[in-house]
Specification:
Rossmann fold; five-stranded parallel sheet; elongated; about 500 residues; homodimer; 2 domains; alpha/beta; 10 strands
Chain lengths: ~500, ~500
């Protein structure tokens, strides 16, 4: 796209000023509609060093109310960022509904820079491109407007600007080693950038090349393209998008009704195994930490199935400095205003740490589906979106363990009744639990579909038969140990 | 996509039958909505020889009313097809609004087969991929639902089927040389198909791989995917899509108001030049024919600007067996029911022939824009769509010459008045001409934008100053000759 790039004719000064005023006013006026229609707008500024990204960004945001945008400068990943998947720092900064988020440099910079420096090979580069395409498509599918700009100048112009900046004692800090390297290796960079732009030029999230020789003309290009794209996106808030075919290998899983629930373990055997397994997990936890493996354990299951007690038996074996338990309730307003996976990206563990989720992102295809909190298109898409999310975690190096804690309807009734009749347990049982119980059959259909469609080979579901809670706890511990050991052996 | 392809679990017989009945009924019931919402549905069946494309197609269409679908079997291009751009035979067969079109084998087959046979190199392959991506995106952008299936079987299964078919005297005709070659070179084909699927797996027009081991299960996959995609598309009939940035080199063009119209030619000089130029064009026409160059001449301009007389002076120099003039009026109902470029694809000349269009595809950004016959999103997208269309023609080898026949407003008035006062010319002037004249200023804005955005270096506009019609005719002839000679020299 860059190699055969041709500038469009620059308007004369008068026309430029006139169009710029029109575009600025239009952008400013759009804020109300963006807020009302709850459109999230992500604007990405990439391009050559010294192409003027920062200064154009400064001009563009002058048209916007500061309460409605956030600028994130992505220079170098922090230590914290580096311990998470490479898209983490971008995902946590996506805009909320009705607001703008501007990224000064994006994932493009990470990927192309590592490649140019020889830190990543072709294979890793391809993997990252695939991740990026999924990420951008998921945002678009979930109603985000993503506008990507690449600020383009030629080698001579860049050299000239870097020289001028260096000579200016107030501006010389702006010239980094990387900018100089880029200028020296301009053709090499051009080739890599060009291919990156080609690879990620998806029609739903296309690239716009900004001819950046002239600052004002560049601002005009950016503002006009923003206005055009926002006005299109505002028409499309109820868009339904294609459901992609699953491309991840799936394990064959039984339906819940086919899972025998008569498994038990004796008290004595339970104590003995618990002890042994917790000891094993405890020492594995050290190894995880040492080898910087992130571990993610996800719990879903029927109310009163025994998730809480099960989690306790896991955490009991872990060093408290190395794990976190995340109880997931309905999303807070600031969470609801973003991609439904956002609150989970925010809760990802650092590498070497364990995160346990008590209820998870699978809410999308269970409660959100059944209660109509999202559209049918939303939850139908979610199986693939979740598989992609977990694939991202897997590729990052995570061990992903998903438990469905299974009991039968009678056992649930018995436990509900017991809770209701036991004063110190009454807090555990609410009207909502009873309402959910009424929808048992509908939930079972949803859970069966979920388990069928999201048991990928890298993150399969494990069903814990929990009519006997002891049996379920021992089984959970064994699986956690086994899965961690499997993954540690691989690397 | 094929290499790491994993089958999904096949449902048991009972479930299969039940789901198949549900899906068949759903597809059948959707026909009314498809018709009412005027959704055009293009379904593409690609895949391995003997994978059962034909028989599944036969099963699927059983659910549809024969008045609402058309099946096109794309085995080999005919002689006629081969004299046109490679996408021609597909474009002319796209469905009309509210109907289905099924392609048994698509452009995928052309492109991959030529590549496998070594008839096309990497560069040509890349060019074809780019064309295909544009083609599919344009269909989607213009409201078409495009569903692409790839029928997959492994080498062993294919071998087995080919063997069985060959042994059956009633079916042996179905086994072609190509099928056998494919089976012998299965791994090589797999690699090429896999890359093709990756390259063209656009999220708006994704691929669906059909596991074709079992005929009934394959039918189920196809029918369910169709039902799902149609139901999504039915929600999206008013969709606005992103306006892509121009990526074609544009010439710098003047605004109409800056074109001086005082150019004239003496009667004597005119006769002399006309004679000479027509002689030159006449012999060039032979060379075009011999060298199989298609030539496309497009005329746009103000009413009474002198298009008709100008065209006559061109055709006078041409052998009547080698050219066709297409007067373009408002589209017929069957044309209106398709992509707006469809009626022009249908009128493409054979190679070695000349097609002259009296009014053109640029109606989209002039009359359709100004009269509201299409949405703003439609005509804003059209500049790029038209540049892509003309690029396709150029890559095919065509000489593309576009004339804007320019006069001033006073000259138009004089000619209108003369027409009205001359009995034998009265048919040439209508109420509509006067109404259009009232909109002169609005048209001028649209024409300026059109000329600015579609003067690509491979198909630039030429402005014919036609206050003096003789001058315009001589200029047109010179340009036609020059452009043809330029192109002939290149190859």
């Amino acid at each position: 796209m860059l190699k055969d790039w041709v500038k469009s004719k620059e308007p004369n000064k008068e026309e430029l000023n006139e169009r710029l005023n029109t575009a600025r006013a239009a952008l400013s006026n759009m804020q109300t509609a963006i807020k009302e229609k709850k459109l999230p707008v992500l604007v990405v500024f990439d391009g050559w060093g010294a192409a003027g990204k920062g200064s154009i960004l400064g001009r563009v945001i002058k048209n916007l109310d500061p309460r409605f945008f956030k600028v994130t400068t992505m220079i170098k990943p922090t230590e914290e960022d580096l311990r998470r998947p490479f898209l983490y720092r971008y995902f946590v900064n996506i805009p909320e509904a009705g607001k703008f988020s501007f990224f000064d440099s994006s994932w493009m910079d990470d990927v192309t820079r590592s490649y140019l420096k020889g830190e990543t090979g072709k294979e890793e580069y391809q993997r990252q491109i695939a991740s990026i395409k999924r990420f951008e498509r998921q945002l678009s599918d979930n109603g985000y407007l993503v506008v990507k700009f690449f600020f383009h100048i030629d080698q001579k112009e860049q050299k000239h600007r870097l020289h001028e900046l260096s000579a200016d004692k107030h501006a010389s800090w702006r010239v980094g080693q990387w900018d100089l390297w880029q200028n020296e290796h301009y053709d090499e960079c051009l080739k890599v950038y060009d291919r990156y732009l080609e690879n990620t030029n998806q029609f739903v999230v296309p690239w716009y090349i900004v001819d950046s020789d002239n600052r004002k003309a560049a601002e005009l290009q950016v503002t006009e393209i923003l206005v055009k794209n926002i006005s299109i996106a505002l028409q499309n808030t109820q868009r339904a998008v294609p459901i992609l075919q699953n491309t991840f290998p799936l394990a064959s899983m039984p339906k819940l009704s086919a899972v025998p629930l008569n498994k038990t373990i004796s008290e004595e055997k339970y104590r003995e195994k618990l002890d042994k397994l917790q000891g094993q997990l405890s020492s594995l936890h050290n190894e995880i930490y040492r080898r910087k493996r992130p571990v993610i354990i996800a719990y879903e299951g029927w109310d009163a199935a025994g998730k809480g007690g099960n989690i306790k038996r896991i955490t009991a074996a872990l060093d408290p400095r190395g794990y976190e338990v995340h109880p997931i309730a309905s999303p807070e307003p600031h969470e609801k205003a973003r991609h439904y996976l956002w609150r989970f990206w925010n809760r990802l563990p650092k590498d070497g740490h364990v995160a346990i989720f008590d209820r998870t992102w699978y809410g999308r295809v269970m409660v959100e589906r059944l209660e109509g909190f999202c559209s049918e298109n939303d939850w139908q898409r979610a199986y693939n979106e979740i598989n992609e999310f977990e694939r991202e975690l897997y590729d990052w190096g995570a061990v992903i363990i998903k438990f469905w804690v299974q009991i039968d309807k009678d056992t649930q009734l018995a436990r509900f009744t017991e809770r209701q009749n036991t004063p110190e347990k009454q807090w555990k049982i609410t009207d909502e639990d009873w309402r959910n119980r009424d929808k048992w059959d509908l939930y079972e259909v949803a859970v069966d579909e979920m388990i069928e469609k999201t048991s990928t080979d890298y993150a399969p579901w494990h069903i814990l038969e929990s009519n006997d809670k002891h049996y379920a706890r021992v089984k959970a511990l064994s699986i956690v140990i086994e899965e961690i050991e499997k993954r540690l052996k691989k690397s």
